[in-house]
Each structure stands twice: as structure tokens, then as C-alpha cells.
Fold:
Amino acid sequence: MTWIRTIPLTEADDELRRAVEGQRALYPAEYAVPLHPAGDGTSQIVASHSLIPDALFHAFATFGSLMSPELPLTRQQHEMISTVVSVVNRCHY
Structure:
């Protein structure tokens, strides 16, 4: 397993805290509790980007914006598209 140095929210500066809070605000409610939380309660995949707050925000805010309930596709349609793309790409997860 690869180890990536992360900055926990308890040690975050204002820029990192704003990036995490900003991307989190865009996510659907289903993502409020991470499946694989880091020690500080954030998602491990989000925490892995903590060294570059600007990249963290833009990468994860993009997903949050694409999953907006104000868009014409339903949550179920988003999930079906993701599933089909994963199958076509022979992705195992």
C-alpha cells in the first residue's frame, strides 16, 4: 500500500480548510459520511490531496458540481452511467 503524506484538518491552514469545506458543500447528502474516513473524519481520497489545496478543491468540486440535483439527470441515472462506463473500461471497482 502506498503511503501519502496528508495534512489533517486539525493542522490545516485557512486555505486547506476552505478547500475541504468548499468541495464538501457541493457534494450530495449521500456523501456526507465517507466510506473510508481518514483519522480526522475526512475522506481518505480527499485527504490524499491535502498538500495541494487548490487541486483538492477543483478536482472534488468538479464531481460535486456534476452530481448537482439541479441537473436533469437523477442520482440513479448518474450511478447507471458510472456502472456502464466501469464495465466498458473493465474497471474492477
Residues 9-88 form one domain. The chain has a mean pLDDT of 89. Helices lie at 14-26, 44-47, 53-66, 75-88. The two ends are 17 Å apart (CA to CA).
